[in-house]
């Protein structure tokens, strides 16, 4: 099972997990990213490159499927304006092996951060907007999987 | 040949438009050559594009290094490093 | 937040995730273990050491809390008779940092496998029961965290 | 002093009971000494306990190596390696 969605709408994490659990593997790992309301942040705006986003996420998912014995992968990434507490991203993996499920889940979120065409802009109470700067740490984390 | 250029995030904001079509100068031109060409327009273009080290690019929806030749690509996207996830 | 439960009843994964999401961190990682119906398995019986189980899981959770900056940890482990497709275990972690959430989730499931007093017996269609043998691989995985 | 002994999984099944109380022989006795003492009873005890390498133990609900002295502990549990998660 491969499920990829890029959408402004929220998602139902329970339904996504249930679909992965139903695949008959022994383990389902998931990661949910959430907007933090720190430093007076009032909203996050997620821009993306529509023609590229889904094909690129699909390539990342295919890499995970090549690398680990997975029964299912789900990636949902939201775009548009999101408020503190809102979910941004869901990554879920199902496998017969817990290590495969957990590692591939970590790989997918690391690669989404550094290899998928999304850009975050933070808005604060004073109306000011600030583009989030890519962290060298995230690049390094994604690069770490190359030699894995 | 026509080349569609797309801008994202602060590159888009500084230039003030999200896309445009240009005549591709030469199929041997690299992405960096086109960035230099556009930056030479000055104003928002210079502001957005004068430091190629801060830019990333995609040709026909595939990430490429800035020294890649544009070749037969129909779409070039210019943007800062991605920050999704 | 620290939530530990050892129970025969199933759990509501969505409610567990929602509680972790509400803590204000940027990331929630989870792992759900499920009974696989392979080789004609009809049920899994989970025995445990009641006086020791919760205190021991609590110690493992405390180690995770010492090692990673976590806002919340939930561990639910079922006991008794479970059929194929049934959930066995839920591990969920919330943190400001996705890596802390993912690593601590992997640590917790590895340590539960090798450091919590549960024993699994598999029952097959012919009525035969077979105690699951601990895998050296699991011991090694748990030991790997020592030098982490 | 009395020592409660608990058995789990196939150790419990082979011995045929899940717990019993014995008189602790000596506070300097190790868990392994008690295992040897019990195995010497023969029958299910020998079957369950004759290979200490396959056993794990807890004293007062804490995992301990088999060469640990029982000391003042009130409860000794004997079982195979755990298989939860």
TrEMBL record, chains A, C:
EC class name: transferase
Gene Ontology MF annotations: molybdopterin synthase activity
Which domain of life, per UniProt?
Bacteria
What is any Pfam family matched here?
MoaE
InterPro entries under this entry? MoaE_sf, Mopterin_biosynth_MoaE
Signal peptide range in chain numbering: none
Q: What is its EC number?
A: 2.8.1.12
Pathway, according to UniProt? Cofactor biosynthesis; molybdopterin biosynthesis
The cross-references to Gene3D superfamilies, in alphabetical order and at most eight, read: Molybdopterin biosynthesis MoaE subunit
**Keywords, in A-Z order:** Molybdenum cofactor biosynthesis
Provide the catalytic activity annotation: 2 [molybdopterin-synthase sulfur-carrier protein]-C-terminal-Gly-aminoethanethioate + cyclic pyranopterin phosphate + H2O = molybdopterin + 2 [molybdopterin-synthase sulfur-carrier protein]-C-terminal Gly-Gly + 2 H(+)
Give GO terms for biological process: Mo-molybdopterin cofactor biosynthetic process
Purpose of the protein: Converts molybdopterin precursor Z into molybdopterin. This requires the incorporation of two sulfur atoms into precursor Z to generate a dithiolene group. The sulfur is provided by MoaD.
Q: Which family does it belong to?
A: Belongs to the MoaE family.
The entry describes its oligomerization and partners as: Heterotetramer of 2 MoaD subunits and 2 MoaE subunits. Also stable as homodimer. The enzyme changes between these two forms during catalysis.
Name of the protein described by the UniProt record: Molybdopterin synthase catalytic subunit
Automatic annotation (TrEMBL), chains B, D:
* Segments crossing the lipid bilayer: none
Q: Name one Pfam family in it.
A: ThiS
Question: Known SUPFAM superfamilies for this protein?
Answer: MoaD/ThiS
**Domain of life assignment:** Bacteria
**Matches recorded under InterPro entries:** Beta-grasp_dom_sf, Mopterin_synth/thiamin_S_b, ThiS/MoaD-like
What is the designated name of this protein? Molybdenum cofactor biosynthesis protein MoaD
Species in which this protein is naturally found: Sphingobium ummariense RL-3
